[in-house]
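Review box. Two proteins, two foldings.
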Amino acid sequence: MALPPPEDLPEEILRTQIIIEARSPIDGKPLTAAQYAQLQEQLQVSPPRKLDPKIREQIFLLRIRKALLQIFPFLGI
């Protein structure tokens, strides 16, 4: 009863195994190693999307507000 089941692999063996399958960081679908490498390359090549300047300003103001509320909690009234 104290021993783990025989189908349970020890952690030492699991650490030495090479991972040949992966999941997409975009939608979580299973991928092969080649597909994962190709997807990573495409993500590195494509530039990130630009945010609208108004949205960027709103995020900046919200971060300032959050910081001020941590320093001065009585301002949140």
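Next protein.
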Amino acid sequence: MKKRSLWTSPVLYWACFLLLICTSCSDDDEPIDPIDRYEFVVPENFPQPRYTFDNNPVTEEGFELGKELFYDPILSRDGSVSCNNCHIQATAFADSPIHPLSVGVDNRLGIRNAPSLTNMAFFPEFFWDGGVTHLDFVPINAIEAPFEFDETVENVVAKLNAKEKYKRMFRDAFGIEEITLPFALHALSQFTNMMVSANSKYDQYVRNEGASFSVLELEGMEIFQEKCASCHAGELFTDFSYRNNGLDSTFADTGRNQITALESDIGKFRVPSLRNVALTAPYMHNARFSTLKEVLDHYDDGMVHYETIDEIFVAQDGRLGIDLDENDKEAIITFLNTLTDTEFVRDTLFFRN
């Protein structure tokens, strides 16, 4: 049989033709990657961000500088603690179950569980008590808290200026010769702003991207929307309110009251986002519960009364809580598992350099 010439095959002909065209392109004609890894993109099903990007847009240099600062214990007094100690990517940048409460220099124990940092660009206020209203100022609390970094911002700036690496990185990111606190805070914000978690099974389902829910997941979503979504509202699964959810009748930590000094705010804490909630145990501001089942048991039959308890938890007959049977709890937890964004917690963009 006569062999067929390579050039008589239409498929191979056009493949070779296109290859020749591509290899003859100049460097100036190289195709541009349409995905900028350092561009802040609002997910289709998300609200608009609250962060002021106009005066601090994300750049590759600024992001990489923020990452370096995030993982560097230079921010702490004795060089022993970094932001990453309490905010770990594998747990959606929350603390690990090993540290129910935050642990700082000299192994000093904090009073609250370190929450997830994901989707901070969309938050109007920060911390369990809402004590900071702009993301740029969040790191100051950690730096100056005695039970966290136990440092001063003045010392941090001095230490950064003493490092040639940082002087070069700040110059590349912001065009400055002398490092100042505002630019350090801007760099950290650029890094944390990019911690957008929006590709869970739930997201793919609501965006019609091919994901399908099981019968139990659909049931759980329905029960959740009926009994939980008044507080854990919207695509961020929080309404950003502060509520007393019946954990205690006496308070060593008075929560929102520490910011407002209002007696009506005693025992109120921010409603947390539930995104990646299956990864962020333990739960509540004081790490009271180890599992989601324990959380739901609390809402079902474990709440205690205090005068500031949120009225949403008080039935007409005076009973506290949310009526949930065991099947309801199983279904809700199954639904909550769909909020886990495995792509986000494995994203190499956030890996330490």
